[in-house]
Amino acid sequence: MPKPSPVPDALSKPFWDACNEERLVMQTCAQCDWMQYPPREKCTKCGSADHLEWHPVSGRGRISGYCVQHDSRIASLKEDQPFNLAIVELEDHPEIKMFSHLPGTPVGKVPVGGRVHLEFEVTPATGQKVPEWRVVQ
User: Fold this and answer.
1) How many whole angstroms separate alpha carbon 119 and alpha carbon 108?
2) Whole-number Å distance between alpha carbons of 108 and 17
3) Do 100 and 137 lie in a common domain?
4) Nearest CA-CA partner of 96 in 51, 56, 49
5) 115 lies in the same domain as 66
6) Range of the domain at 121
7) Residues 93, 35: contact at Cβ < 8 Å?
8) Is residue 83 located within the same domain as residue 103?
């Protein structure tokens, strides 16, 4: 399924640069050790703006829920409707939740609670790599 190409800004650029290197990183506050996604100007736990760093995460996770998207407003996704839209909870940081289409998983056959691993897909418009998850068999 072709993905829309994100347009990195100054705040998200380190995340997208790491994706292009096939690494998943999360913004982490060195002051209180809080990890957050999406990136913010300040730590959402302690409010610090001066202690934000980027730390790698494993990319392993579990599916905490899903829906089937039947009518997307995103033009590049319309031809692949319906499709899965799963919520992935990162194994090493369960407070971080990300979305996935779960490539290779039939529509509506999402194993809630199932394990997933990270892979990266190239977006056609710009070549930007984006994180995606695949169900571990």
Assistant:
1) 21
2) 32
3) yes
4) 56
5) yes
6) 58-137
7) yes
8) yes
